[in-house]
């Protein structure tokens, strides 16, 4: 769904309805800091921090980031970019941010809560996982890569052992290896805290990847989410030589369909994702041997979603009119993965707004790490200023159409930065099912709840539901 769209209010609502609510773990340090800087509406972040096991960390974070009067998402205090050797400040913010998101999603009930990460965002992974585990997360999901190392890392964190994660570095020579490290006991500094190992569910698109994970991962792979190319966010690229439709989208074919028989043979539970938000599709998934389905887009536009209310209402109105257009953009993401973009007026999906934006890279979550000819380590992103990218050895052709998702996705949840009087423009990602989200509306309503979606999927009759008392803090 993007950054903070599936935030703690949505995950909590889904969990309270008896399903597994999943929060987005992407760039949570940035989201957490900006919530504090805007005055922490509702006091939710500070309420979660009151339960954090290391009070000294809380004191430092509040001193750095809390703005009692809010900063209206102005520049605020810069959040350090992820690096191979993160500062204590970055590590503390990342652990606390993941803790707070999971803690709030779990608050006041016994339902199941998961967290979703991108494997390609490697640098914050270790402190992110530990923060979520400190809050008792039940499930970790991870896609956009091959997360072979994660099961063993979860084992190590649960046992409070130091853990390491090998980091991909472009241009490394044979025998060179770069890693990040995290020591749970050193972080806790004598504090006692429970952090049981969560289940691990990699998000995959092929049986070959599922079999590789089962065979080569160093710890337990507890199941899979099998995602098709109609899902929102990043998609796996099509297999074989690239082919594109008349409007420039990658073309998926028979080779891109997962071989479910081979996945079933692994004897692990799996959930199907991408276009399964229909009762008939849920029934079909169960018939095919799945444990259930994963649904994203249907929840992205409900009242508990983190999306700005204006964007949610705009998409629902377009769904009613039949004018929703979701484009699988092969160039938008700096990662190089195809990325679903919902074409909306006023967002960087519009070519003129994208071209007018002054390129800047000040968050750095999607940067590539590279080794220079002199052996030095550097960071570059094809969405940064073209001159800077090429000066670091990048190919100018790789910058064409690249969008700064690090800044545009937070803008979609009302946390875009204000620079020189100009607000960062949003980008909204959604699956192809966004065209039909109006089907969740009850008669006479112009919005719907997470519970409405669940009732629809389970074939239960619609009943009037009260507005979410948590509200959406970013109208």
CATH classification, class level of the largest domain: Alpha Beta
Unreliable residue stretches? 465-475
- Helix percent band: 25-40%
Number of helices: 17
Domain tally: 2
> What's the shape?
globular
Give a short account of the largest sheet: 7 strands, parallel
Nearest-integer average pLDDT: 90
CATH structural architecture of the largest domain: Alpha-Beta Barrel
Structural class: alpha/beta
CATH topology of the largest domain: TIM Barrel
The main sheet orders its strands as 1-2-3-6-7-8-9
* Total beta strand runs: 15
Please give the radius of gyration in angstroms: 21 Å
How much β-strand is present in the residues? Answer: 5-15%
Task: Looking at this protein, list some descriptive labels.
about 475 residues, 2 domains, single chain, TIM Barrel, two-stranded antiparallel ribbon, 17 helices, alpha/beta, 7-stranded parallel β-sheet
Describe the protein's architecture and organization.
The protein is an alpha/beta fold. The protein has two domains: 8-322 and 435-457, TIM Barrel (Alpha-Beta Barrel), CATH 3.20.20; 345-427, no CATH class. It has helices spanning 8-16, 28-37, 44-49, 55-65, 88-106, 125-134, 150-158, 184-188, 207-216, 260-264, 279-287, 297-300, 309-321, 351-356, 386-391, 405-412, 450-457, and strands spanning 21-24, 113-118, 139-143, 163-167, 178-182, 199-204, 224-227, 270-273, 292-294, 326-329, 339-342, 368-371, 377-380, 418-419, 422-423. The two termini are 18 Å apart.
């Amino acid at each position: 769904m993007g950054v903070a769209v599936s935030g703690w209010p949505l995950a909590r609502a889904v969990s309270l309805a008896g399903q597994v609510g999943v929060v987005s773990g992407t760039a949570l340090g940035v989201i957490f800091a900006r919530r504090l800087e805007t005055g922490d509406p509702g006091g939710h972040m500070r309420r979660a921090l009151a339960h954090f096991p290391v009070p000294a960390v809380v004191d430092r974070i509040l001193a750095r980031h809390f703005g009692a009067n809010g900063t209206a998402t102005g520049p605020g205090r810069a959040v350090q970019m992820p690096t191979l050797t993160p500062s204590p400040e970055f590590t503390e913010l990342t652990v606390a941010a993941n803790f707070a998101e999971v803690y709030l999603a779990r608050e006041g009930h016994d339902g199941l809560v998961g967290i979703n990460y991108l494997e390609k965002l490697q640098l914050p992974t270790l402190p992110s996982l530990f923060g979520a585990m400190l809050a008792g997360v039940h499930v970790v999901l991870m896609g956009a890569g091959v997360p072979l190392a994660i099961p063993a890392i979860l084992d190590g964190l649960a046992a409070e052992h130091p853990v390491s994660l090998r980091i991909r570095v472009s241009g490394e020579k044979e025998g060179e290896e770069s890693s990040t490290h995290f020591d749970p006991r050193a972080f806790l500094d004598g504090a006692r805290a429970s952090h049981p190992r969560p289940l691990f569910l990699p998000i995959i698109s092929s049986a070959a990847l599922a079999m590789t994970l089962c065979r080569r991962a160093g710890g337990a792979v507890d199941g899979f989410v099998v995602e098709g190319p109609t899902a929102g966010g990043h998609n796996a690229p099509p297999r074989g030589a690239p082919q594109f439709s008349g409007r420039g989208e990658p073309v998926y074919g028979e080779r891109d369909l997962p071989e479910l028989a081979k996945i079933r043979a692994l004897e692990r539970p799996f959930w199907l994702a991408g276009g399964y938000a229909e009762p008939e599709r849920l029934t079909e998934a169960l018939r095919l041997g799945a444990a259930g389905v994963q649904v994203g887009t249907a929840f992205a536009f409900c009242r508990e979603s983190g999306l700005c209310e204006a964007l949610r209402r705009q998409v629902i109105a377009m769904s009613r009119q039949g004018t929703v257009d979701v484009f699988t953009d092969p160039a938008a993401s700096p990662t190089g993965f195809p990325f679903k973009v919902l074409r909306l007026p006023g967002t960087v999906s519009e070519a003129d707004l994208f071209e007018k934006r002054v390129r800047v890279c000040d968050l750095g979550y999607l940067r590539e790490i590279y080794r220079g000819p002199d052996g030095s380590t550097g960071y570059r992103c094809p969405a940064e200023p073209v001159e800077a990218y090429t000066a670091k050895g990048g190919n100018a052709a790789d910058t064409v159409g690249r969008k700064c998702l690090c800044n545009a996705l937070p803008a979609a949840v009302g946390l875009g930065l204000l620079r020189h009087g100009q607000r960062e423009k949003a980008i909204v990602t959604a699956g192809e099912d966004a065209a039909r989200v109006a089907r969740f509306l009850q008669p006479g309503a112009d919005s719907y709840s997470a519970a409405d979606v669940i009732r629809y999927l389970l074939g239960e009759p619609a009943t009037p539901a009260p507005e979410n008392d948590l509200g959406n803090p970013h109208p």
